[in-house]
Each structure stands twice: as structure tokens, then as C-alpha cells.
Amino acid sequence: MHHSLKHSPALVLGALLLVGAAQAAEYPTHPINMVVPFSAGGPTDNVARSLAEAMRPTLGQPVIVENKGGAGGTIGTTQVARAKPDGYSLLLMHIGFSTAPSLYKNPGYDPKTSFQPIGLVVDVPMTIIARSDFPANNIKELVEYIKKNKEKVSLANAGIGAASQLCGTMFTQAIGADLLTIPYKGTAPAMNDLLGKQVDILCDQTTNTTQHIKAGTVKAYAVTSKERVSTLPDLPTMQESGFKDFEVGIWHGMWVPAGTPKPVTDKLVTALQTGLANPDFQKRMAGLGATVLTSEANPDALAKKVAQQVPQWEDMFKKAGLQPQ
Q: In this model, does residue 4 exceed pLDDT 60?
């Protein structure tokens, strides 16, 4: 009898499914890795570290942030796409997730098929800032100065696919001027050179610029959100400043590799939603000018966002004449 059972494919499969379900039910049994495809200390990293802490109580295991920067976030993103789909490799990535396919010939992943979405996390406005001794005092003067001196004005960004590059592209398109663009390997070195007055202008997320704006170590001109940001009430929006369609938020989302079992993704969705509701997390995000996307912290909302954004950015880059690398 035992002999015939041994070879019954249905029983073998049934046993494997039970083992899989049992593992999923116990999940997680050890620490979880959250990959941030950008350098430590940058704006996405700031969100990730607060979120990792906020998700821990629900999961009962530590969530360890791993910074895997390079190539506009595609290196870290691809690492998670290729990871075992067992719920121990999470990706925390921003809008760059849906711009990489237009910026890179081979980003290493397909935004529609390589991942299972967990949900949206936060939306972060951008700020247009300059070195503290830059001659222009408001956005109108800034645009006039750039148009007169465009050969001399330098625009920093954190590399191809970084939020600062997307915003910089929108800005130069909006004012109709090509600037000398200086790509850095991450936000921290770009900001350091702006603070050190080596470059002139940067457009970056409030999660990274608020402290410098408040300290007066940079000059700020505008925010890219629809409304003013409560932490920077004196800063006008780009729309108030006469750029009627200039609105961009750097949304952040969480994904796991495609094929992750549903009981595991369900648990992660719950942990994400509970984490976003955590008062400490909300307070930290508010202090950084970020909006917590509580109602969109689910797989459908994130899938919809990506499907809508991929063609939108493709169109913008084509108009800007950017060729995939």
C-alpha cells in the first residue's frame, strides 16, 4: 500500500500545497528584507526606514532596509524581481518604477509582470531650490535669470530615473530652456554640492529639502504639489506661479516578486495598512511634507497607478527628446 502511495502525483502535489500553505500561515518566521534601490540618507530611504519600523508590530519580525543604489533604481528593483517569491524580499520604490522602461533600453524588469503590487505608501511633493547665494529671489526672477544666463546655470540631479531628474526635465520643458545638467550618484552628493555652492539648482523631494529650506542653507522657490505644503507655508505652488500644468508628486509603492503566495501578500497588505495608520509614522511623514496614501494602500490602486503612469512618462520623455540609455 505504501508503495503505491509514494508515486501518486495528486498526493505529492497535495502535500506540497499543504506545506506551502502552512509556511504562508506561519509567515514571517525570520526578518524581512526591504530593498530601497537608492543610496542611504536619500528621500526614499527616509520613507523606508520609518515604514519598516511601523510595519514591524503587525509582522512580528524586523524589517531590515537594504540600500541597493545605482542605474536610476533599476539595479535594486531587478534584484527584488529575481528574488525568491516568499515574502522575505520587499521593494520600496517610487515613481521611477514606471519611468525606467522609457529611460533604459533594458531596465531588467517589466513593471507589469515582474512584481505583485502590495500598495501605495506616500506621495511627496518636490521643491525647486538653488544655492543660498543665487541671485534670483522668486520663481519669476529665477526663470528670467535662467533664460538670460542658460549657458552658465547648472542643474543637479541624482542620476537618470531619480525623482530630481524627472522634476528637472519637467522644469526645463516648462520654461523652454536646456540647462547644463549634472547627474550625481544619489541625492546626498547632489545636495552636498548645492550646499557647497558648486551647482546652482536642484529640484528634489520635500523629504530631503525641508530641513535645508528651514535652515536657510538653500534658497527655495516653489513646491510642485497642487496645494501649498503645511510645513513650508510660505512657498508658492508652481501653479500659483503661473505654470498651470506643473504638478508632480513622487508617489512611493511597495511590491514583492511575482508569484508570491496570496496568504503572504495579504499579510503584507495588512502590515502596510496598519503601518500607514501608525501615529508616529504619520507624524514623521507630515514633518517631511509627505502625504500618507492610506486609502490607496492596496494592490489594485498600485497596479492602476503603474498602468496609467508608464505611457504618460513615455510621452513626456519623447517630447523632451530623451533617448533610452
A: no
- Would the CATH topology of 29-123+249-319 be identical to that of 125-223? yes
Q: Give the predicted TM-score (pTM) of the model.
A: 0.80
**CATH code assigned to 125-223:** 3.40.190.10
Amino acid at 117: P
CB 142 within 8 A of CB 221: yes
Compute the residue count for the chain: 325
Encode pLDDT of 164-193 as tens digits. Answer: 888 998 898 888 888 889 998 888 899 999
Chain-wide mean pLDDT for the chain? 89
Q: Which CATH number fits domain 29-123+249-319: 3.90.226.10, 3.40.1110.10, 3.40.190.150, 3.50.4.10?
A: 3.40.190.150
- CA quadruple 176, 198, 125, 297: dihedral, nearest 10: 120
Where is mean pLDDT largest: 15-19, 95-99, 111-115? Answer: 111-115
- Per-residue pLDDT at 18: 58
Domain spans in the chain, listed from the N-terminal domain onward: 29-123+249-319, 125-223
Cβ neighbours, 10 Å, residue 311: 12
Helix (H) or strand (E) holding 172: helix 163-175
Q: How far apart are CA 37 and CA 71, in angstroms?
A: 9
Q: Is 171 strand, coil or helix?
A: helix
Q: What are phi and psi of 123, to 5 degrees?
A: -125, 130
Which residue shows C-alpha cell 530623451?
A: 322
